[in-house]
Amino acid sequence: MESTETLLPLDSLLDLVQAAPPRLGRTRLISIDGPAGSGKSTLADRFEARATARGVHTNVIHMDDLYDGWSGAERGFALLRDHVLQRLADGREGRYRRYDWHTAAYAELHVVPVTVELLIVEGVTSCDRDADRFQSLRLWIETTNEVRLDRGIERDGEALRDHWLDWMRWERDHFALQSTRDRAQVVVDGNPELPHDPAIELVAKSVALPHSAAS
């Protein structure tokens, strides 16, 4: 992999994904992993906006909606794998219940129809090895621990600082076990200094694709 940061148009990555055969039934899958607070959900939203603009039927799943609380990330991935990804691969609609963090219980049912052309899954564990066979593109996004923690406390409040610190320790070990960053096809800077238009471009720290998507 190259180590120099470079601008990568989101549309070029979508072109590569759409040109490749689907690996999830009729659906192509983009997975975005990386430490908490690094910018995964923001990047997923930007991919969704670009895909929708070109008329692609797109669905986004946030792994936060599948975790069974702060200690439930691995269960959340198992639910994604067994009840969404494998079902779509088998030609059946995917389905999952959203975890309600306020009531600490799973809530309403969400359905992912087989007609979805692009599925974007963002969140810690989304690029675990058991999803490799389904993915058209694997992204990893990262920034410093200080930036991530500041973002998390700003979003969730000071009262959850200890939960955040415990989570950061857990995810570090999980990523090491899964070699998540090393297996990513694109490593994204989640707090870049390189000038760019975030609505249409990302700043890549390294790229390992079948052929370059950079312009």
Overview of this protein structure:
This protein is α/β, with parallel strands linked by helices and 215 residues long. The protein is globular, with a radius of gyration of 17 Å. A hairpin with a 4-residue loop joins strand 4 (94-100) and strand 5 (105-112). It contains six helices and nine strands.
Q: Over the alpha carbons, how many angstroms does the gyration radius reach?
A: 17 Å
SSE pattern = EHEHEHEEEEHHHEE
The fraction of residues in strands falls at: 15-25%
Q: How confident overall, as mean pLDDT? A: 95
Quick take:
The chain is an alpha/beta fold and 215 residues long. The chain contains six helices and nine strands. It has a seven-stranded mixed beta sheet. A two-stranded antiparallel ribbon has the order 4-5.
What key phrases describe this protein's structure?
single chain, about 220 residues, alpha/beta, 7-stranded mixed β-sheet, two-stranded antiparallel ribbon, about 35% helix, about 25% strand
List the helices and strands and how they pair.
Elements: E1 6-9, H1 10-19, E2 28-33, H2 40-53, E3 58-62, H3 73-89, E4 94-100, E5 105-112, E6 118-122, E7 137-142, H4 145-156, H5 161-178, H6 180-183, E8 186-189, E9 201-207
Parallel strand pairs: 2-6, 2-7, 3-6, 7-8
Antiparallel strand pairs: 1-9, 4-5, 8-9
